[in-house]
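Records of this kind hold a single protein each, on a pair of labelled lines. With that in mind, the following record should read easily:
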Amino acid sequence: MVRYFQNGNFREAEDCYTQAILKDPSNPKLFTNRAMTRIKLEAWDACMNDCIKCIELDRRNMKAYYYLAQAQLALKRPNEAFCSATTAYERCVETQDKSIANVSALVLGAKKQKWLAKEREIERNRSTLLKELVDALSANKQAELKELMYRTLDSVEEKEERADIERSYELKIEEVHSTFSLADPKNMPKREVPDYLIDSITFSVMHDPVTTKTGNSYDRATLIEHLKRSQTDPLTREPLRMQDLRPNLALKQACSEFLDENGWAVDW
C-alpha cells in the first residue's frame, strides 16, 4: 500500500486500503491512510467519510481532523474546516507533533477562507442594496414625471420642470454610487498589520503566540521549528527549551480578532 502511494499510484493504494479496512474495520489508522490517498484523488466527500469514521474510533487522532479540514476547505465549507483544523492544531500542541507548522498554516488558511466568504456575502448584500436604492429612486422619478403630466403647465414650463426632475434624480443616483464606492474596501487606504501581531522570524501574523523567558513573543509553530534546529532563544541566543514557552493569551486574542476582520493578512 505504501509503495503504491509513494509511486503516485493513488487509485491502487486506495483499493488496497479498502481491502485492509474490510479485514480490520476497527483500525483508525487505515481510515486516515485511505483519507490521505483520497486527498490526492480529490475525492473530498469520500475523504470526509473516512475522517469521520476514524474520529468515531479515535477522537484523539490528529491526522483525521487535519485531513478532514482539507476536505472541508476543498468543498468550500470554511467554518467547518476552521473547527477541524483548530482541533488538529490542539492535538499537535498536546503531543508536540512535528506537523504543527503545516497544521498551523491550515488553520490560518481556513480563517482566511472564512473571511473571504464573509466578504463575498457583504459584497452581495452591498450590490443588492445599491440596486434597491437606485431602483427606488428611478421609481420615484417616474412617479414625479407622471404627476407632471396632470399639472396645468405650458410646454416651456413642462419641459423645464421635466429637466429639473431628471437632473435632480441623476444627481441623487450619482451620490448613492459615490457613497457606495467610498465604502468599497478596494478604494480604502493601504492595509497595514500592527507590528506587535507579526512574528519576528517569519514576518507573518501570529496564530498561536507564545512568550520566551526574555519576554519576546513568537508564533508557537515557528518557534518549535526553530528549536528543532537550535535550542536557543532566537533573539538572545540564551538556552531555551519547549518547557520554557508560555502562551500569550492576550496577544492570541488580539491576533484572532484582527484576522477575523482582516483575512487578507494571512498572506502578509
User: Anything to note?
Assistant: The CA atoms of residues 176 and 245 lie 53 Å apart. The chain has ten helices and three strands. The two ends are 40 Å apart (CA to CA). The mean pLDDT is 91.
